[in-house]
Design a protein that fits this description.
TIM Barrel, 11 helices, eight-stranded parallel barrel, single chain
Length: about 250
């Protein structure tokens, strides 16, 4: 089972920062999930929210702020004083810092950004194809139009389709994945059902589940037979899985 660190080890370090990513490596995560958006000058930066306030206490939107300014903001103090000075990293910086053996799930955020999806697709695709020798890369998104466009532009890069309950209600994993060229289906723990696993298996799809935070959650997902979990606490999950295997 893949043990994926959600925004890094975000249960014990500020999400989407180098501190959280380095902690995830120390915790033994097999993959790190992170979120990316485009800055005002089209730099791919690592941040979840469209607005800056929650993690920086600065007003403004990511899409309206230049990359150099975003990368100067304190994105660690909100989590704890020991993380003061942790900044919003660029994706390029993350790719350079993390060991090539650590796989990445890059979740693309486009909500609130009216710029054409082709801008993000081009910036992200060129960076991955020209600048990274990483062993495992996965591009995921709730924006299925973006995924379809990205697949047309860079058909060789693996994709994951994220399930949105209201919009995707009644649509099977295979249908959603087929429309965008994805090989992986991702949903939350609360959304997981046996029929989703059955459909994914019948069509050769991998299933990842986010929101798995406790050992009870882990056991439940193991019973479903999912391929990987996305958690804020990878160390806890790594220890449990290792103990079961021994």
């Amino acid at each position: 089972m893949l043990l994926i660190a959600h925004r890094g080890s975000s249960g014990i370090a500020p999400e989407n920062t180098l501190a959280a990513f380095r902690q995830a490596v120390r915790d033994g995560a097999s993959m790190i999930e992170l979120d990316v958006r485009l800055s005002a000058d089209r730099e791919v930066v690592v941040i979840h929210d469209r607005r800056l306030w929650r993690i920086t206490r600065r007003r403004g939107h990511v899409r309206r702020t230049p990359g150099v300014e975003l990368k100067s903001l304190d994105a660690g103090s909100w989590f704890g004083p020991e993380f003061a000075g942790e900044t919003i990293p660029s994706l390029e910086g993350v790719l350079q810092v993390l060991p090539p053996g650590i796989a990445l799930d890059i979740e693309v955020k486009t909500d609130g950004d009216r710029r054409r999806n082709g801008q993000m697709a081009k910036a992200l695709g060129e960076m991955i194809t020209h600048g990274s020798r990483r062993r495992g890369l996965l591009i995921s998104s709730f924006d299925h139009r973006f995924l379809a466009r990205f697949h047309r532009m860079y058909p060789g890069i693996p994709l994951a389709v994220l399930y949105m309950p209201v919009r995707d209600l009644g649509r099977s994993p295979s249908r959603l994945a087929r429309r965008v060229g994805a090989g992986t289906f991702v949903c939350s723990r609360a959304q997981m059902r046996k029929r989703l696993v059955r459909d994914a298996r019948e069509h050769g799809l991998r299933i990842l589940v986010y929101g798995v935070q406790t050992l009870h959650h882990l056991s439940s997902m193991e019973r479903y037979g999912v391929d990987g979990i996305i958690t804020d606490y990878p160390a806890r999950m790594v220890r449990t899985v290792a103990a079961k295997e021994n």
